[in-house]
């Protein structure tokens, strides 16, 4: 991957995409595959906002059935099938378990009907097992840490899991391979007009200080919660709502590596407990957010809510505040005004034409971003004219997807990593994260065997991945690596020694001197997610 700021400084394109989250990345990739000239920019880094703060799932959204949003669920399940087909290295099936208790808000018979409908909406050829039912004894035997008081049985169903920041990065890589120009750390300083029509943007290199301008026949503002700043304010964009979600990162649970769909006793909300990178994610909360997205934080009461509810269901886990390994918060832009309950806010996707030549996607979810981006480019044909290519994103393997027998490829790649000294768990995660680029990472280990060591004993990531991110994955800051290329900042408390070690691995790749190394460490430690008191 090459950062192409110089190439786009005076470019004329068909489509300028502002915002390198999952929606911007898929839109750029889809348009480039069809032969349009495309530029994609992000003011910080790929997936720096909402797209690296999800629940790390590719799913239909079982809970949306309760609000009869069958179309959204069907769309999500169709995209789940597509993503497991085009990115089998990165999207893995995972089983969810739903324990049922006396007095639950949703009765067992309703849950059984909902799960049957979920399977039905998915259709045939899905990558996950159909739902199943358990009695209380089976659940106690399999998950001894579950609370047993009032336990009457339970269900299981299948969905999928991924690393949201890594998948977004891979879509950006695919867009670049298809011909799009891409540059992170590139801010839009001004929107350009001809009369009342947007015709592109002035850009600024936040690393080297250069400036330029991109002329575009159409601009898609996919900056999520930051989009209204570029569109001309809330009054131009129309009604929308910011919804905040918080997750905690906890130690790994013993036993089967299944996820849980649980119901909070205090307010009846659903939340997840999910295994991820040898840790456990608890989340999410859901609350109306009125502040500036850059000031997003995890507050003490939000962390206590998740801990309390998880401990009610997982009594033997007995997690305490000091057990929290990390945390993260994100905010989504959904349709609707400030009135009404959060559960009633539509998760549907739409494109708002904020101004002539400037479009803004609103709503949707990570899982459906590919299909939604396809619809954006379909609509754009009216502005851009017929596409010059016929390839579609649902028919192309993602950039780092293996061909042939994925199971055999994965086993061989993991064996190669272990033979070079990478430990078993780190090898398994390495292959999932890098796909066919795993061999290039291992080449660095062959040159310098010490790079096979873990960056930190609690995180299954090796030192070579840090250097590789700086050399080949457009990582230009320590935060790019520790927050997104590797989710270390989500799994550990601020660690000055780890930050310095990682910065020294990046330094030869980016020509950092000692002063720059210290500045990068200070910046990373200042941005490390933590739990804050409310003011």
UniProtKB/TrEMBL annotation:
Protein name: Glycerol-3-phosphate dehydrogenase/oxidase
The family this protein is said to belong to: Belongs to the FAD-dependent glycerol-3-phosphate dehydrogenase family.
Cofactor(s) for this UniProt protein: FAD
Pfam families: DAO, DAO_C
FAD dependent oxidoreductase domain residues: 14-360
InterPro entries per record: DAO_C (IPR031656), DAO_C_sf (IPR038299), FAD-dep_OxRdtase (IPR006076), FAD/NAD-bd_sf (IPR036188), G3P_DH_FAD-dep (IPR000447)
GO terms for biological process, alphabetical: glycerol-3-phosphate catabolic process
GO molecular function annotation: glycerol-3-phosphate dehydrogenase (quinone) activity
Alpha-glycerophosphate oxidase C-terminal domain span: 409-516
Keywords per UniProt: FAD, Flavoprotein, Oxidoreductase
Organism for this UniProt entry: Abyssibacter profundi
Record keyword Flavoprotein present: yes
The keyword Cell inner membrane is annotated on this UniProt entry: no
Lineage of origin: Bacteria, Pseudomonadati, Pseudomonadota, Gammaproteobacteria, Chromatiales
């Amino acid at each position: 991957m090459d950062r192409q700021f110089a190439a786009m400084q005076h470019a004329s394109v068909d489509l300028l995409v502002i915002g390198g989250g999952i929606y911007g990345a898929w839109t750029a990739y889809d348009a480039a595959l069809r032969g349009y000239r495309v530029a994609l920019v992000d003011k910080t880094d790929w997936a720096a906002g909402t797209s690296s703060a999800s629940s790390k799932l590719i799913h239909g959204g079982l809970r949306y059935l309760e609000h009869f949003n069958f179309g959204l669920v069907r769309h999500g399940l169709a995209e789940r099938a597509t993503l497991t087909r085009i990115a089998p290295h990165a999207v893995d099936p995972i089983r969810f378990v739903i324990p049922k208790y006396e007095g639950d808000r949703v009765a067992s018979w309703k849950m059984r009907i909902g799960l049957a409908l979920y399977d039905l909406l998915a259709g045939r050829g899905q990558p996950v097992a159909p739902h199943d039912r358990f009695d209380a004894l089976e659940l106690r035997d399999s998950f001894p840490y579950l609370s047993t008081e009032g336990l009457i049985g339970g269900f299981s169903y299948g969905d999928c899991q991924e690393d949201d920041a890594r998948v977004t990065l891979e879509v950006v890589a695919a867009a670049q391979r298809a011909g799009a120009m891409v540059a992170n750390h590139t801010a839009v300083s001004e929107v350009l007009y001809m009369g009342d029509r947007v015709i592109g943007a002035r850009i600024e290199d936040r690393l080297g200080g250069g400036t330029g301008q991109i002329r575009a026949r159409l601009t898609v503002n996919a900056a999520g919660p930051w989009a209204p700043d570029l569109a001309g304010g809330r009054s131009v964009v129309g009604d929308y709502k910011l919804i905040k979600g918080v997750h905690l990162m906890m130690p790994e649970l013993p036993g089967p590596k299944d996820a849980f769909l649980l119901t909070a006793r205090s307010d009846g909300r659903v939340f997840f407990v999910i295994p991820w990178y040898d840790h456990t994610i608890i989340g999410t909360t859901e609350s109306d957010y009125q502040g500036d997205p850059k000031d997003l934080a995890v507050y003490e009461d939000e962390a206590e809510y998740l801990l309390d509810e998880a401990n009610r269901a997982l009594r033997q886990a007995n997690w305490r505040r000091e057990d929290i390994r990390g945390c993260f918060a994100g905010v989504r832009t959904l349709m609707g005004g400030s009135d009404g309950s959060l559960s009633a806010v539509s998760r549907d996707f739409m494109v708002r034409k904020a101004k002539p030549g400037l479009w803004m996607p609103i709503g949707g979810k990570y899982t459906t971003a590919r299909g939604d981006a396809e619809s954006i480019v379909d609509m754009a044909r009216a502005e851009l004219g017929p596409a010059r290519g016929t390839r579609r994103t649902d028919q192309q393997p993602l950039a780092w997807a293996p061909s042939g027998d994925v199971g055999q490829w994965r086993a061989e790649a993991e064996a190669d990593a272990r033979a070079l000294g990478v430990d078993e768990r780190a090898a398994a995660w390495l292959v999932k994260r890098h796909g066919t680029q795993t061999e290039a990472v291992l080449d660095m280990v062959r040159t310098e065997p010490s790079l096979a060591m873990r960056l930190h004993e609690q995180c299954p990531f090796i030192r070579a991945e840090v250097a590789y991110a700086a050399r080949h994955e457009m990582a230009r800051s320590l935060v790019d690596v520790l927050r997104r290329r590797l989710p270390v900042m989500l799994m550990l408390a601020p660690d000055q020694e780890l930050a310095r070690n990682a910065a020294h691995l990046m330094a030869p790749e980016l020509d950092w001197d000692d002063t720059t190394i210290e500045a990068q460490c200070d910046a990373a430690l200042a941005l490390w997610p933590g739990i804050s008191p409310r003011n």
